[in-house]
Amino acid sequence: MIETIMLIVVIFVLSGVFWYSFFYQKEKKLLNRLQQMLDCAINGELERTEISEEKYSALENSMKQYIDSSFLAKKNQQEQKEVIQKLISDIAHQTLTPISNLKIYGEILSEVSNENQEEISTILEQTEKLDFLIQSLVKLSRMESGIIAVHSENTTIKQMLESIQQQFNVKVREKNITLSLCDTDLHVRCDSKWTVEALGNIVDNAIKYTACGGNVQIKVEQYSFFVKIDIIDDGIGIEKEEIPKIFGRFYRSLSVADQPGVGIGLFLAREIIQAQKGYIKVTSKRGKGSTFSVFLPIAKKE
C-alpha cells in the first residue's frame, strides 16, 4: 500500500517536473523570439516572416503587427518631414531675389524722397522681418534634417563672448544699454559657430526687452560636468506660467506684441544647445528681469 502511494507520488512529481520544464522551455523560447524581434527592430533589421496564430504565437504576432505599424508611421512621418523641408528650401530660394529687391528699392525711396518716410520705414522693417523668418526656418529645416550638424570640440568661452559683443555693439549703443562680459578662461565642448548663434538669440532678446539705459550681463560658472553661462537682464521679465511656453516654435507673448520678432529665436537656441548635450534653464520675475542659464558640457582634457 505504502509502495503504491510512493509510486503515485513519484509519478505525479515527475509529471509535474516534465510539464513545468515543457512550458518553461516554451515560454523561454517565446521570450527569446520576442527579444530577437525587438533587437532587430532597434537595428532596423526586422525580418518579415509569417507567424502562425497558435496560442503561444498570439503575443508574438501582436508584437510584430505593432512594430510593423510603428515602422510605417515612422516612414510616413519622415516622408512628410522631407516634403516640408524641401518646400521650405524652395520657398527660401524663390524669395531670395524678391526680398533683396524690396530692400534695395525701399532704401532708394528712403534716400530720394522726403515724403511717406514712415510708410517706407515700415516696408523696410517688415522686409527685414520676413527675411529673418525665412532664414530661421531654413536653419531649422537643415538642422532637423541633419544637413547641418553640430560638430563639438573644445572651445574657449571668451572667444565666443567676444564674438557676441562685437555682434551687438551697435544695438547696445542705440539703446544706451551696458553689456557686461565676465573675464574667463574656461573651455566647453561645443560647436562655436552654432553656440554663438544660440547665445546670440538669447542676448538679442535680453537687449530687446530691456529699457534704454538698462543692463545685460553675461556670467560664467564651472560645475563638475557642465559650464553655466548666465545671460542676465533687468528688463520686463516673464510671467511664471509663460516660462514653459517661450521655447515653443513661433510662440510670442501678448505682452510683447508691439516688439519686433517672430518667436523662433529661443526655439532655435534650445535646439542647438540640446544637440550639443546641453540644456537651458530660465528664472524670471515680471518687471524685475530674467536670467537664461545655458549649460554646456565641460571641455574634455586632451
From TrEMBL:
Keyword Coiled coil: no
Keyword Nucleotidyltransferase: no
Catalyzed reaction equations: ATP + protein L-histidine = ADP + protein N-phospho-L-histidine
Enzyme class: transferase
Keyword vocabulary terms for this entry: Kinase, Membrane, Phosphoprotein, Transferase, Transmembrane, Transmembrane helix, Two-component regulatory system
Gene3D superfamilies named in the record: 1.10.287.130, Histidine kinase-like ATPase, C-terminal domain
UniProt-listed Enzyme Commission number(s): 2.7.13.3
TM annotation in the entry: 6-24
Domain of life (superkingdom): Bacteria
Residue ranges of every copy of the Histidine kinase domain listed in the record: 90-300
GO molecular function, one term: kinase activity
PANTHER family: HISTIDINE KINASE 1, TWO-COMPONENT HISTIDINE KINASE
Name of the protein: histidine kinase
Native source organism of the sequence: Dorea amylophila
